[in-house]
Amino acid sequence: MSGQNIMHAETTAAPPTNLMSLDRASMESLFDAMGEKRFHARQVLRWIYQRDATSFDQMTDLGKSLRARLGRDAGISPPEVVARRASNDGTRKWLLQLADGNRIETVFIPEAARGTLCVSSQAGCALGCTFCATARGGFHRNLSVDEIIGQVWLAKRELAAEAGAPRAVTNIVLMGMGEPLLNFDNVVAALRLMTDDCAFGLSRRRVTLSTAGLAPAIERLGALCPVSLAVSLHAPDDELRTQLVPLNKKYPLARLLAACRRYAGARRQITFEYTLLDGVNAAPEHARALARLLGDLPAKVNLIPFNPSPGIAYRRPPQDAIDRFRDILLGAGVFTATRKTRGDDIGAACGQLAGKVLVRQPRREARAQ
Ligand code: SAH
Fold first, then answer.
1. With 60 as the cut, is the pLDDT of residue 183 above it?
2. By percentage, how much of the chain surpasses pLDDT 90?
3. Can 28 be counted among the known catalytic residues?
4. Residue 261 CA to its chain's centroid (Å)
5. CATH fit for domain 80-367, picks 3.30.200.20, 3.40.1180.10, 3.30.70.100, 3.20.20.70
6. What is the 304 CA–ligand 1 centroid distance (Å)?
7. Which stretches of 196-318 are DSSP H helices?
8. Catalytically annotated residue among 28, 105, 147, 179
9. I need a surface site. Which of 122, 158, 228, 319 has the fewest CB within 10 A?
């Protein structure tokens, strides 16, 4: 009997807590529960995110017995890089292997004055936007906090190890694989680490979450962690938008824009992403309708010329059509920029991230989560 009990205790022993899965508040609770001082959370966060420590022995301002205890009960486990690619334009893409074998992609886009890291929030995606490569691979699961923040940790370390003048991550966009607002709690914890002075310390303006338009979650985010918001719009009316972004059936434009208006409040500007698809949503009348739709919002439009991907039958409009679309918006007083295509030679451009999803879930189930 007792033998069986021991066996049971052994097989169900809690795995060591990965400290990269905890934001500051959760780490303080952990130290509380251990009967230790809460301020150790700040020390440990600085060691992990500012000094790249992966072992507790390095944490010389923690007492020896606390270090030993953490070494027994906790760990620091970032994801593993399995492939690195560099584009002719300087964009880097890392393929990361997760503990369960799924693979996700993270992209770094260097520009003259900043370096933007594009982070994934799910393995695969459940939303089924018709022009996106991530959608084609299906959905597997939400990423955990450590898998999200681990991408930033790894990119910083990989960039620091490169020859020549090191590049820094100055901006983060949650525009990689997945729909961040369908992984709300983990994404918010990761956003907190991105903006915590004891971790990556970025200003909220420099961290952008991009969503296909989950209106209620946009409102919750505004109350909890109001980072910069980008909304993938892609069409100026419900009929066309529902064809391209099936989620629009659930949260049509009026509902979505009401949430955006609330999020913007008095000060914040919202970015609307609009992927230009030739013969679908890129005609002058679409631009005029878009300008009318966004009329009174503090909006900025980011036009994304379609990036091709195997098996996706859309085309990018010719350059003069892209310019014309932009000029109509500008003429109507809407701030508009065309996103420069970066990293398309290594499949790192918007909508090209596919990773490797091991087990797919039917979209219906995934969306119900
Ligand atoms: N699910 C979130 C995060 C993904 S962000 C969202 O929808 O916003 C990826 C951005 O790239 C989105 O604006 C998406 O609509 C856009 N995109 C997807 N596929 C694309 C493609 N093939 N070409 C250009 N942009 C694309």
1. yes
2. 79
3. no
4. 22
5. 3.20.20.70
6. 9
7. 215-224, 238-244, 253-264, 284-294
8. 105
9. 319
pTM: 0.91
Task: Name which residue sits closest to atom 13 of ligand 1, judged by CA.
Answer: 232
Show the tokens assigned to 115.
């370096």
Show the tokens assigned to 235: 């069409």
- The domain over range 2-75 is classified in CATH as 1.10.150.530: yes
In a mutational test of the pocket of ligand 1, which residue from 172, 175, 277 has the highest number of ligand atoms less than 8 Å from its CB?
Answer: 175
Cα of 85 from ligand 1 centre, angstroms: 21
Q: Is residue 273 among the annotated active site residues?
A: no
Contact 225, 203 (CB under 8 A): no
Mutate to test the pocket of ligand 1, among 116, 119, 131 (most ligand atoms within 8 A of CB): 131
Locate the domains of the chain by residue range.
Answer: 2-75, 80-367
Answer yes or no: are the C-beta atoms of 304 and 347 closer than 8 Å: no
| pLDDT given for residue 207 in this prediction | 98
d(CA 246, CA 213): 10
CA-based nearest residue to 132, from 350, 338, 355, 356: 350
Q: How far apart are CA 306 and CA 343, in angstroms?
A: 13
54 contacts 60 by C-beta, under 8 angstroms:
no
Average pLDDT across the chain, whole number? 91
Q: Report whether pLDDT(11) > 50.
A: no
Largest distance between two CA atoms of the chain? 81
